[in-house]
């Protein structure tokens, strides 16, 4: 009697090319050998499933990190715009300060020239009290 052989189709995933390839498992008359082959196949498929799950998790992590990177880029742009605006405001304040100082010094110079120079004794008394 010829040994009975049965073929079961099995598809294997080619991880590098993301394609499936057909694989045929040939069963023999030896049940122990068939069980061992199927157990080995089960282990291999379990490892492949684990790898695919890890890859999926990594892709999700990458997507999440990409989203965070985009958000941080927007925040950086916003902060740079705010920094530029603060720099412009600071420049305007400095110009205003200089103008106020000039406006304040001009009347004081006029006052000094109208009154004349103060006496030496007056300077000593003023410096002694202040």
Structure report:
With 130 residues, this protein is of the alpha+beta class. The protein has a domain at 6-93. 73% of the residues lie in helices and 14% in strands. It has two helices and two strands. It has a two-stranded antiparallel ribbon with strand order 1-2. The longest helix has 85 residues, at 31-115. 0% of the residues are buried. The model has no long low-confidence stretch (mean pLDDT 79).
Salient structural properties:
130 residues; two-stranded antiparallel ribbon; rod-shaped; coiled coil; alpha+beta; 73% helix
Quick recap:
The chain is an alpha+beta fold and 130 residues long. Helices cover 73% and strands 14% of the residues. The chain has a two-stranded antiparallel sheet with strand order 1-2.
Secondary structure: elements and pairs:
Elements lengths: L5 E9 L4 E9 L3 H85 L4 H10 L1
Based on Cα principal axes, name the global outline.
Answer: rod-shaped
Given the helix and strand composition, which structural class is it?
Answer: alpha+beta
How many β-strand stretches? Answer: 2
Helices, by number, come to 2
Fraction of residues in helices? Answer: over 70%
Percent of sequence in beta strands: 5-15%
- Overall pLDDT: 79
Which series of helices and strands comes N to C?
Answer: EEHH
The largest pleated sheet is described as: 2 strands, antiparallel
Cα-to-Cα separation, first versus last residue: 126 Å
Keywords: Coiled coil
